[in-house]
Amino acid sequence: KQAEKTVHQKKEQSKTKCRKARRRHINLIAEFNRRQRKNIWLETHIWHAKRFHMLKKWGYCLGDRPTEKCYRACYRAMTNHCLLQDLSYYCCLELTGKENELLKQLGRICSIDTGLTFEEACCLAGRYEGCLNLYRADRYPEDLLGPVTFIWKPRDGSENRQLWIWMHPALKQDILRELKAIFQCKEPEDFCIPESVKTSLEEEKQMDVVPSLGQKRKKEDTEGERAVPVKKIIGDGTRDPLQSYFWISQIAGIVISDRTMEILRYRLIGPLSHSVLTDTLKAASLQSV
């Protein structure tokens, strides 16, 4: 009788909620982290997943094509209004060090014959973004690495400068390897795993625990309990979470940092792009400490 009463109560409780609410995961953040084990999501993933066919590539889950015929709407936005694209899957490498040392070595992987270089006056001041092709060191016009865009941080009176270089994820490993070679950067000996990565890996272990009785269990792999979970990729679809994300040159004092997915990137297209930015972004008031 007690068992029948319990079953009856469960049925009554389930009817009080709609089907969508009953199927909703208890911990959405943990469920979203589980889904990102192989391919991580952009900040706009939820919006795209509801409207686009998703494509898993380069370690990311990207919107490939819309589910509805919205090509005319996109064309109208580009010609008359504003269209926004999420390019956060592009990889960003940050170079920090003395300006003359940076320019000296960066000049070996580009050429003035192709157009702009890292030394262009308007780009060096940090006012404009530049675009150029990178080659292997001292190998121009052979051994092309690929196109990149870059922007310098404006001068603040110090001899140290910051340079951000954006590239397609398919080119990241080759370009990063070349930059580490020309600057002779190595992984720091005292490198430790960030706390955010540790906590996320611990969450993954907890999620792999067998659920308690009474809860539904998802279909297991062919290996069952012995299946090893895939490591969750934190922040960057092109780097293992246990690998270093910065490298230091003991000779020139240059530091190369991997800022992929830490600096988001959006592209606005259309005649009203500037108006959208001015209406959206507001300058913060200066506060003295």
From TrEMBL:
Specify the Pop1 N-terminal domain's residue ranges: 3-97
Instruction: Give the highest taxon in the source lineage.
Output: Eukaryota
* GO BP terms, alphabetized: tRNA 5'-leader removal
Q: What's in the GO CC field? A: nucleolar ribonuclease P complex; ribonuclease MRP complex
Enumerate the InterPro entries for this protein: Pop1, Pop1_N
Return any one Pfam family short name: POP1_N
Protein name, per record: POP1 protein
Q: Which organism is it from?
A: Turnix velox (Little buttonquail)
